[in-house]
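User: Before I run my own analysis I want an independent prediction to cross-check against. Here's the chain; please return only the structure tokens and, at the end, one sentence I can use as a sanity check.
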Amino acid sequence: MADQNLTIMEEFILLGFSEFPNIQGFLFVLFLFIYISILLGNSLIIVITNVEPALQTPMYYFLGNFSFLEICYTSVTLPRMLMNLWSQKRNISLVSCAVQMCFFLILAAVESFLLAVMAYDRYMAICRPLYYPLIMNHKMCVQMVIGSWITGIPVLIGQTYQIFSVPFCGSNKLNHVFCDMPPLMKLTCGDTSWDKFFIYFDCFLFGLIPFILILFSYIRILNAILKLPSTTGRSKAFSTCSSHLIVVCLFYGSGFIAYLLSMSSYSDRMEKISLIYIIVTPMFNPLIYSLRNKDFTKAMKKHFVLIFF
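Assistant: Structure tokens:
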């Protein structure tokens, strides 16, 4: 019977929000609105940072790439979730599940590295202003973005292969809205200690190390800001970092809660907290930068005036 179960495990059932059958339509409309908001808001950032001459700086180059990443990040999971809510068909094939998880992990790692790159950019601008134009030239910016995109790909493809090479048995129901490592590991047979080790290794390599680099950068930035003689200078310097700092807190705060809790006590409720860093960070990214960044707000108003008048 065990061998038969291993043979016929060809798809999973994403339970998602099936425990709330009476509000499926409301959830579909809610998440559709969120997804459209993410697409429009981040697309607006990409367009503005590319067409406005005053924003042709490394900071906004990274911001445009970050917004493109946010669109890709949510597009890996939200369209499938919307389709499941609309059709009430929650099955996903083994291959589709592996592909979704692999892209999700890769894009999460890219976001972590890109946030670290953006912190380094702010560090150079504030702490090394004389060297900033020389070091943060366009070629270096392109190389840093490419490095952020490709660094984690081999490791995370291997991680995906490792998880899906382990036999699954028993139930094929995932109490989650998409294919993610922790709920999948609950369905594997045999010893999963190596899989758990690799999850912590991934958290260290793609989460903790970039976070430490960000933290180190902001310690140096804060030290440099406090040494500025004028209050106006300190306020202006801090305002260039505050938007990025808020996004960092949103992303790492939710990510660490979801993945650094003990796997043995991983609860069903905790699994759905993944929605925070799938949805909240991409959705609030445009709002944070448009409301707190005066240069971006000024450029946005300028182009809206040209469009409508």
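Sanity check: Strands lie at 11-14, 91-93, 173-174.
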